[in-house]
Design a protein that fits this description.
The chain is α+β, with helices and mostly antiparallel strands. It has 4 domains: 143 residues, no CATH class; 118 residues, no CATH class; 117 residues, no CATH class; 82 residues, no CATH class. It is built from 10 helices and 37 strands. The strands form 10 sheets. The chain has a 6-stranded antiparallel barrel with strand order 1-4-5-12-11-8. A hairpin with a 7-residue loop joins strand 16 and strand 17. It is globular. It starts with 25 loop residues before the first strand and ends in a 5-residue tail after the last helix.
């Protein structure tokens, strides 16, 4: 996805000696100066380090060969900023007075050796915009992979195996642009990950190697155009034939193998809650969950970006040595990426650029895509907090800028009631959306699946005397068996009744639609099967974008 890197023509840096970093040093095996570096036709005289198949270079030296830019180090925050501080933005801390201009690099001999290095100890920024790039700190100088150099500076990179030369920027004729300069594999990445073709049932997939969870899981992926599919395989030494004894909702003792239970977990994870599985199966479920919850998509996405298998962000950099660097910020309001994604470029009331946002920047959008969308002119409180300090209370919402109150939006006294969906305050429309954790019931009729999801009251077949025997079971208490709340024997005519027909059984009205049982909520309350609260705070708040603009809060 394209992200603006403001005014990027970058240099990076020699860090001051004696800086304190959170990341501990590692002793690693590397090779010095095995690769020749040429920048726009000019040979670089700085060191380079070959580590796990990727060549790391000090960007400061390479960038100096095109154009000098200020480099500022903030030691307390472990941040390095390349370029200027945009107007209206505050520096992240107190800059160091130390400089690396007076220090000469000692050119290392070509050799294989072990060194102590810090990894990803700093945050790299360009004009105070964060740049995603791994880094290696050695002997006071920060190195990043060649591929990161190309992404940050907006340059092409080519590697000539015959001469072991990497070209940055201008590329001579006859040299082919490659994804990586790796001597290990054409698919190795800055993170050390690589891939190999999948075998057996995973033929046609690529298996990710070198990721942090290799002892627990095999990670596979497929790339089809702009679509990426992932899969994970548990390889831990767990006896899947082990027999597990558990008790079902009716108090019956059941025995299943771990393999069978894993199928159960995968098939019904959308129907039953995690709490229910834990109450029934304890560590057996947690062992299964450990692998299924691994950040597989993030790992694959990181690897595809590092190896150039997905298009890197476009840069607005001019590579001429006499280029005048200016901060480039987008026009305010709505626009589109090249793939058609709607993006909103936000400025606060003082005209300070606050970043770009899309629908997925709303914390709930990924799990609840039916939530109000920024592309439909509804900005979530999550996104708005990137523009202002927002203090939300039960009866008001307060916007602040640099600790000065900007606007106060009073809320109605019944705002937390579940039947209140929208309000208007100071001519700004505000909307509520159930985040999915709201367990309150607003339906007149409720189906058996929704009933269990919201109340953990389960409607289940008992088969005591016949096929029409059912009962309601309440939530388990401290992992005990669910108590039986209410027995229900359906009439013999039930299977022949029309869809939507309702019947009354011992004070409870029941009907069926699309193969599901539905119950009258008022009856469930009267029979003490469920209790209902009129208030809930399990919602997210959205503001109408047009109203925010009209109020002068965003531009």
């Amino acid at each position: 996805m394209k992200k603006w890197l403001v005014g990027m023509s970058a240099a990076l840096l020699l860090l001051p000696q004696g800086s304190i970093f959170a990341a501990p040093s590692k002793n690693v095996q590397v090779s010095f100066n095995k690769v020749n570096i040429v920048v726009n036709g000019q040979a670089a005289t700085s060191n380079n380090i070959l580590y796990e198949g990727s060549t790391y270079v000090p960007i400061r030296n390479i960038a100096e060969m095109m154009e000098n830019l200020p480099v500022t180090f903030y030691p307390k925050e472990n941040i390095v900023n390349i370029g200027a501080v945009p107007a209206g933005k505050q520096e992240p801390g107190v800059p160091s007075a130390q400089s690396d201009n007076s220090k000469d690099d000692v050119l290392e001999k070509k050799r294989d050796t072990a060194i102590d290095a810090d990894f990803d100890a700093i945050t790299i920024m360009v004009n105070l915009q964060k740049v995603e790039a791994s880094n290696l700190l050695y002997n006071g100088r920060t190195y990043v992979p060649l591929r990161a150099v190309s992404n940050i500076l907006g340059l092409k990179v080519a590697y000539d195996e015959a001469t072991a030369t990497a070209y940055i920027g201008a590329i001579p004729e006859g040299v082919t642009i490659k994804t990586s300069d790796s001597s290990k594999s054409p698919a190795s990445a800055a993170s050390g990950m690589s891939h190999v073709p999948g075998q057996g049932e995973m033929a046609g997939w690529m298996m990710l190697k070198g990721h942090p969870y290799e002892n627990e899981a095999e990670v596979y992926y497929k790339v089809d155009g702009s679509r990426t599919t992932t899969s994970v395989k548990d390889i831990r030494k767990i006896n899947l034939d082990e027999v597990i004894t558990w008790v079902d909702a009716d108090g019956r003792t059941i025995k299943n193998t771990r393999k069978d239970l894993h199928r159960l977990f995968g098939s019904f994870s959308n129907k039953y809650t995690t709490d229910w599985f834990i109450s029934k199966f304890g560590d057996v479920y947690m062992d299964y969950f450990k692998v299924t919850s691994l950040p597989v998509d993030q790992l694959v996405d990181q690897y595809l970006k590092e190896t150039g298998q997905v298009k890197p962000p476009e840069s607005k950099v001019s590579l001429k040595p006499d280029t005048v660097v200016t901060a480039v910020t987008p026009k305010s309001g709505y626009n589109k990426y090249e793939d058609g994604t709607i993006v909103f470029y936000a400025y606060d009331r003082s005209g300070t650029y606050k970043g770009e946002y899309i629908d997925r920047d709303d914390g709930y959008y990924s799990t609840r895509p039916e939530s109000p969308k920024l592309s439909d002119k509804w900005m979530s409180l999550d996104i708005l907090r990137n523009i202002y300090k927002v203090n939300y209370q039960d009866t008001q919402i307060i916007f602040k800028q640099e600790n000065q109150e900007v606007i106060r939006l009073p809320l109605p006294s019944n705002w937390n009631q579940i039947d209140v969906k929208e309000t208007t305050s100071s001519n700004i429309r505000i909307k509520k959306f159930d985040t999915g954790t709201n367990k309150q019931i607003t339906e007149t009729w409720i189906d058996e699946d929704t009933l269990e999801k919201k109340t953990r009251v389960k409607f289940s077949f008992t088969a005591k005397t016949g096929i029409d025997d059912y009962a309601f079971y309440g939530p388990p208490k401290e992992r005990a068996i669910e108590p039986k709340l209410f027995e229900l024997k359906l009439p013999n005519s039930w299977n022949n009744s029309s869809s939507g027909d309702a019947t009354e059984i011992n004070g409870l009205h029941v009907k069926k639609e699309n193969g599901k049982h539905y119950f009258l909520v008022d009856d469930l309350k009267k029979l003490n099967i469920i209790t209902i609260s009129k208030e809930s705070k399990d919602f997210n708040i959205y503001f109408n974008v047009d109203d925010l603009i009209a109020a002068g809060l965003i531009k």
